[in-house]
């Protein structure tokens, strides 16, 4: 099973070969509350690590989404346009946001699960 890595901006990624699946963390969706809309990039968009690639809006707030690594968007979770609440219901499964191709190694600075848990304990 591929290891999930976390950014300090509350995105997660799972690398599988040269492809990465990206979403927001369970912590982030809980802080946002009920997600009502997502703005996501088009397939073919090239992203740099740290670049804003979209936004998530909830009943409480709106927040930018940041690419935890560089790559080209190869897929967007189209289900989210009709059912954005999937991000709340299953943030690590059906609520994924985008897939990137051309991803290499996970960048240094991403956190493992224990590191992310420690990071969020100070934010809760």
Structural account:
- The chain has 124 residues and is of the alpha+beta class.
- It has one domain: RNA polymerase II/Efflux pump adaptor protein, barrel-sandwich hybrid domain (OB fold (Dihydrolipoamide Acetyltransferase, E2P), Beta Barrel), CATH 2.40.50.100.
- The protein is 19% helix and 35% strand.
- It contains four helices and nine strands, in the order E-E-E-H-E-E-E-E-E-H-H-E-H.
- The chain has helices spanning 26-32, 79-82, 86-89, 113-121, and strands at residues 4-6, 11-16, 19-24, 35-39, 46-47, 52-58, 62-66, 71-76, 98-101.
- The strands form two sheets. The protein has a six-stranded antiparallel beta sheet with strand order 1-2-3-9-8-5. The protein has a three-stranded antiparallel beta sheet with strand order 4-6-7.
- A hairpin with a 2-residue loop joins strand 2 (11-16) and strand 3.
- The model has no long low-confidence stretch (mean pLDDT 92).
